[in-house]
Amino acid sequence: MKLLVDTCVWSLALRRRATAKMSAVEQQTVAQLREAIQDRRVAIIGPIRQEVLSGIRDKTQFARTAELLEPFRDEEILASDYIEAARLFNLCRGRGVQCGPIDMLLLAVGVRNGLEILTDDQGLKRCMEILKAAELLC
Q1: With b meaning 16 or more CB within 10 Å and e meaning fewer, what string describes 5-17?
Q2: Domain spans of the chain?
């Protein structure tokens, strides 16, 4: 199954300093990303690409990171995805969990396209659990 990758996972894999220690869970997540890249099962959305690149001050590092992301195709975002993202936000918020708008857009695009979401974000994982319980997410 194709993976729609969240910002935090890209940051772990591309922006984390080589000397920084990763937890076992983070290492497993990065390994999942690497395997999916090798199998050509990775997708991204434009707002995630923007989030990954935002805040990189060094021009060389920015260009290198942009180049590393270049091979990954952006999933199309439809107007209906924004409406669905708002609906999913309201559903999760009604159950006491709140995620950011980009996270909800990621979920909406993922649901529409039948894509698995790869994230290390605990808030987003809670939203995903709510959506699975509501049978909106595989």
Answers
A1: bbbbbbebbbeee
A2: 3-69, 79-133
Count of positions (residues) in the chain: 138
How large is the greatest C-alpha to C-alpha distance in the chain, in angstroms? 45
- For tokens 């857009």, what's the residue? 105
Backbone angles phi, psi at 23, to 5 degrees: -70, 170
Distance, CA of 86 to CA of 110 (rounded, Å): 14
Residue reference for tokens 């199998």: 39
No. of helices (H) and no. of strands (E), the chain? 7, 3
pLDDT digits (tens, 9 = 90+) for 28-71: 999 999 999 999 999 999 999 999 999 899 999 999 999 999 99
pTM: 0.91
